[in-house]
């Protein structure tokens, strides 16, 4: 299942409105097929893996990160039907598909075809991998990651506005990798006008993965954070700033993941803070809102990822 989850990550940021799914087919201990959801959502991961496996899928075990779909589409057949027709012996599913067109029907169809179905393997990892799709279904909006790059004392620039660069090359490269995993990236109007950021992906081989650029502005399409519900074809939204835009998403309760890059420098009280007012009136309300899910060193900088508790 770990291999299937890794494959699913290849499609993240490119499959909306469909989920990014990974599939591995194993026969006699040998991987005979691999697949992941392709750009635009088709072919599905199972279809790709089965096509690669061919006749070797007969009697094999398929590991899939999301329950195989049960609905027919003009763009392709139901994956549960494809797996049944391929005569696999077993399907191991990490996470059930809450889409009402499937929602248990895919697993039921496989069992009806005489296929052994095992569910709930690496469920938490699959939920994190498919967070964009799940958030879109549950809340009608994209999964939002807020990125902050700060000094040790929580500053993002000198009083003059100078901010290039607080973090080092490895941390900035990691930011570009994160951009490549999102369909859209958003900054506030002032940040766009003052800093004129490119907001693209500048990693060799990933230049075509640059996300759609969005601006939060009273005069634009997105006037407030809640307007992200209007966005179509976007499962993952990367918010990069500035301080007031970041604070507005936190005040609205629309941040699902915090990505914090912290450089080993001090700027001081006259530096520009990472956040504006987030609407906090009691210190107790700040407790137990976030849980650390990842931490690593990127050169001299530390990266920490937090998710809602």
TrEMBL record:
Coiled coil region boundaries: none
Single GO molecular function: diaminohydroxyphosphoribosylaminopyrimidine deaminase activity
Record-linked Gene3D superfamilies: Cytidine Deaminase, domain 2, Dihydrofolate Reductase, subunit A
Pathway of action: Cofactor biosynthesis; riboflavin biosynthesis; 5-amino-6-(D-ribitylamino)uracil from GTP: step 3/4; Cofactor biosynthesis; riboflavin biosynthesis; 5-amino-6-(D-ribitylamino)uracil from GTP: step 2/4
EC numbers, comma separated: 1.1.1.193, 3.5.4.26
Domain CMP/dCMP-type deaminase: 1-117
Transmembrane segment boundaries: none
Entry keywords, A to Z: Hydrolase, Multifunctional enzyme, NADP, Oxidoreductase, Riboflavin biosynthesis
Gene Ontology biological process terms, A to Z: riboflavin biosynthetic process
Reported function: Converts 2,5-diamino-6-(ribosylamino)-4(3h)-pyrimidinone 5'-phosphate into 5-amino-6-(ribosylamino)-2,4(1h,3h)-pyrimidinedione 5'-phosphate.
Family to which the UniProt record says this protein belongs: In the N-terminal section; belongs to the cytidine and deoxycytidylate deaminase family.
Official protein name in the record: Riboflavin biosynthesis protein RibD
Source taxonomy: Bacteria, Pseudomonadati, Pseudomonadota, Alphaproteobacteria, Sphingomonadales
């Amino acid at each position: 299942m770990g291999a299937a989850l890794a494959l699913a990550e290849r499609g993240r940021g490119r499959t909306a409105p469909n989920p990014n799914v990974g599939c591995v087919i194993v026969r006699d201990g040998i991987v005979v097929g691999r697949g992941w959801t392709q750009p635009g959502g088709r072919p599905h991961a199972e279809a790709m893996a089965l096509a690669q496996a061919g006749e070797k899928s007969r009697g094999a075990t398929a590991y899939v990160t999301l329950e195989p779909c049960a609905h027919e589409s003009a763009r392709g057949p139901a994956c549960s039907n494809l797996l049944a027709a391929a005569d696999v012996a077993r399907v191991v599913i990490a996470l059930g598909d809450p889409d009402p067109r499937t929602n248990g029907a895919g697993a039921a169809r496989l069992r009806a075809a005489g296929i052994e179905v095992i569910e709930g393997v690496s469920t938490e990892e699959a939920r994190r991998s498919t967070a964009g799709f799940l958030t879109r279904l549950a809340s009608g909006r994209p999964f939002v990651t807020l990125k902050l790059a700060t000094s040790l004392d929580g500053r993002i620039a000198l009083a003059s506005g100078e901010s290039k660069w607080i973090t080092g090359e490895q941390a900035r490269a990691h930011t570009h990798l994160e951009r490549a995993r999102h369909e859209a990236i958003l900054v506030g109007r002032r940040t766009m006008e003052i800093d004129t950021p490119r907001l693209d992906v500048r990693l060799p081989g990933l230049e075509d993965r640059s996300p759609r650029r969005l601006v939060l502005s009273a005069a634009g399409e997105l006037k407030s954070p809640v307007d992200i519900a209007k966005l179509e074809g976007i499962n993952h939204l990367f918010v990069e700033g500035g301080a007031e835009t970041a604070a507005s998403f936190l005040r609205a309760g629309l941040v699902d993941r915090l990505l914090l890059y912290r450089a080993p420098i001090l700027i001081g009280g006259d530096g520009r803070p990472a956040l504006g007012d987030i609407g906090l009136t009691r210190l107790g309300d700040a407790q137990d809102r976030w849980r650390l899910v990842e931490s690593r060193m990127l050169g001299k900088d530390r990266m920490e990822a937090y998710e809602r508790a």
